[in-house]
Amino acid sequence: MRVGYYPGCSLHGTARELDESLRAVAPPLGLELVEVNDWSCCGATSAHATSHLLSVALPARNLALAEEQGHDQLLAPCAACYNRLASARHAVACDAALAETIEDVLGRPFPSTVAPRNLVEVLRARLDLLRERAVRPLTGLKVACYYGCLLVRPSEVCSFDDPEDPVSMEEVVTATGATPVAWRRRLDCCGGAFSVARTGSVVRLSRAILDDARSAGADAIAVACPMCHSNLDFRQKALVRRGEAELPVLYLSELVGLALGLDAETLGLGRHFVDTKALVERALASKPGPAAKPGPRPSAPAAAAKPASPAAAGTEAV
Amino acid sequence: MRTHGTDAPAHGPLSLRAEMKERTGKNTARCYQCGKCSAGCPMAGETRLRPHDVMRLVNQDARARLLADESIWLCLTCETCTERCPNGCDPARTMDALREMALEASPGSPPRALLAFHRAFLDQVRWTGRSFELGLVADYKLRTGALLQDVATAPGLVARGKLGFVPHPIDGVKEVRRIFEACEEATRAASGKKEGA
Question: Which pLDDT score is estimated for B196?
Fold first, then answer.
């Protein structure tokens, strides 16, 4: 399936491994990523904190470009970009005057026909292929699925999963053969964009997340947002207390890539600050499963409890 | 809410609540102070005003007090408050609107570090079409004087191939610049209209 691809600024810099791992897992999962030509920044936190109009106009330019280039869906693997694209589309849909102003500001038509998609919903729509092609199921690996804020909130804008009790990441992790753990802080904020300007808040918030994942017995945390990754991985040296083991933080696409049998270098696993070697060795050591047969699927408490309801909402078009 | 003071009457013809409704489409008067927003707020322990305080002050027309308070800049926009508000008051969107109003009223009012970050970030986008992390951090350091912050981590980022050294302006950078200018112009026109009304 052909899908428009909006990498966003982070994937050209600190989140290169998210770009690399996603591009690597796309072909085996039947996805053709077509990068939107000449995309620009979504404006991120700095735009919406200072100008509502700018925070709609900057994402709208990219949605308009995607449409001109023949796409009806746009995959934004960065949760912050996804949220800004989806929020801009929602704002225009709710406000006819704003829609008109945006066309003036852009100097282009903006019929808003392109649907933004996030990493989790796109992977979740390919679970059958993933199970079928998981030649190296990550059996025994315990993973804390961390959603953070921008994938699921506000649900008015991000409607693909339940905002208070989501299951989609756990479903993807289960399909890799790993076991999602039950924990409390999977929807808490890591401190997001305050990483540079208010590091102390980020340390406080991210430490609580790491502590909770660790006490739930997780071997790794799975994320789908470059800011979450940066705060939990890059800042982790400042977060762990003496004697505590570091906890690898992997992009969901990296976990999927490992299960698909891709090597660590291709997936960018060497770019992390918290060493992923031991984890990768464990994954490599796990017995290759029969490729054609779905591997054992340890049930996540959340995933098992609610199999279909929110899952049905986001899958149809992806 | 730690004090009860309200400000002098609102500037211009609109109450803060009415202006908020105009800007966001949300009716803050529906807030009945249940405190659910503040209960879930990750920054509530660090801010003088918690989300439900902010909502009440909006309804009390405490414009000057709200716009001068650092609390509105410490909101992370995690959207927990908005998701949980039983009355659809949207505190997160309210915070965004208050920040925008604070900048319009007094461009120097936000906390220095946060404003420096936002300015550095948006200047990157305005001049290249994208944000560029190395330039962003360098610009931020110059604006704040925090020259040594995170210096120890830069080599680690370079070793991992995570810091590019050259910004890559996009082809449509002039278009992006025009979008910034058009937004600024539209905002000026709107606030001129309000003052003239």
Answer: 58
pTM summary value: 0.90
Q: Residue A300 corresponds to which tokens in the numbers above? A: 């996540």
- Closest partner residue to B99 among A16, A50, A149, by Cβ? A50
Which residue among B83, B105, B127 closes a domain?
A: B105
**Nearest CA of chain B to the CA of A16: how many Å?**
7
Do residue A35 and residue A7 come from a single domain? Answer: yes
Task: Among A60, A93, A119, identify where a domain stops.
Answer: A119
Say yes or no: B25 contacts chain A, CB-CB below 8 A. yes
Does residue B49 sit in the same domain as residue B96?
yes
pLDDT per residue as tens digits for the range B137-157: 777 877 787 776 777 777 787
Gap from B33 CA to chain A (nearest CA, Å): 20
ipTM metric: 0.89
* B20: containing domain: 16-105
> Which residue in chain B is spatially nearest to A191 when comparing CA positions?
B76
CA torsion A35-A41-A43-A45 (nearest 10°) is: 80
Cβ neighbours for A247, distance < 8 A, ≥ 6 positions apart: A210, A213, A214, A218, A219, A220, A221, A236, A274
